[in-house]
Amino acid sequence: MQSYDWQSALQQAVRKNQRDAHNRYAQLATVRADGTPANRTVVYRGVSDDQRSLRMVTDLRSDKLTEIAAQPIAELCWYLSHTREQFRIRGRMIAETQSAQRDATWKALSDAAKAQFFWPTPGIAVGSASSSTASSLPADPATEPPPDDFVLLLLEPFYVDHLRLRGTPQTRFFSQLNNNVWESTAVNP
Ligand SMILES: Cc1cc2nc3c(=O)[nH]c(=O)nc-3n(C[C@H](O)[C@H](O)[C@H](O)COP(=O)(O)O)c2cc1C
């Protein structure tokens, strides 16, 4: 059997699917304080500087931050439609509110994506008093430092379930991090 590692498989999948913008969207599941699942779509923004984690961005005022603070284990479910494969990536979430890679990630955002961090507090009634720390868009968001509400989210995986629908038979691999070494097993799909 060919050697397998999920990081290479994921990077290859990202490359092969990049023609379709929707293939950068994945579903991030966290756990609410009452134990119920919370799931939402996020944009994948590449790997971290140390290559160990997957990058996403979010707003400090969003519910997922409270959930992650109480239960930092989360799972990303990502279907890449062109190559027809799914990655379920479980790991520890880290929220960075100050770091060089956070600043670099901010710089790389489109102006439209930046503008969202200057909107009123997400999830509260429209028109109600806002706890926003940055409620108005600066004249040129591109030249500003990141607002306080901008958070770099890192998912540091320890378990990956990779299913490929393409091909007969389909293939599926479980990968687990043991003592800093990834071990993968081919399993029945
Ligand atoms: C296509 C798409 C992409 C999205 N990307 C992000 C993202 O990168 N980061 C983010 O925080 N929310 C993103 N959202 C919004 C979230 O799905 C969610 O509504 C929001 O983050 C609030 O979630 P929460 O209340 O569970 O924290 C996206 C939504 C869609 C539909």
Write a structural description.
- This protein has helices at residues 6-17, 63-70, 100-108, 111-115; strands spanning 25-31, 37-43, 54-59, 73-80, 85-96, 150-164, 171-178, 181-187.
- Strand 4 (73-80) and strand 5 form a beta hairpin.
- Strands 1, 2, 3, 4, 5, 6, 7 and 8 form an 8-stranded antiparallel beta sheet that branches.
- The longest helix has 12 residues, at 6-17.
- With 189 residues, the protein is an alpha+beta fold.
- The protein has a single domain, classed as Pnp Oxidase, Chain A (Roll), CATH 2.30.110.10.
- Bound molecules: flavin mononucleotide.
- Flavin mononucleotide binds next to strand 2, strand 3 and helix 2.
Task: Considering the chains and any ligands shown, give keywords for the structure.
189 residues, alpha+beta, eight-stranded antiparallel sheet, 8 strands, 18% helix, 37% strand, globular, binds flavin mononucleotide
Helix and strand content put the structural class at: alpha+beta
Q: Could you say what the CATH topology is called?
A: Pnp Oxidase, Chain A
Order of helices and strands: HEEEHEEHHEEE
Q: Would you count the extended β strands for me?
A: 8
Taking Cα atoms only, what radius of gyration do you get, to the nearest Å? 18 Å
For the largest beta-sheet, the strand count, sense and barrel status come to: 8 strands, antiparallel
Fraction of residues in helices?
10-25%
Strand percent estimate: 35-45%
CATH class: Mainly Beta
Shape: globular
Distance between the termini: 16 Å
> Which ranges are low-confidence, i.e. pLDDT below 50, for 5 or more consecutive residues?
none
CATH superfamily grouping: Electron Transport, Fmn-binding Protein, Chain A
Number of domains: 1
Number of helices: 4
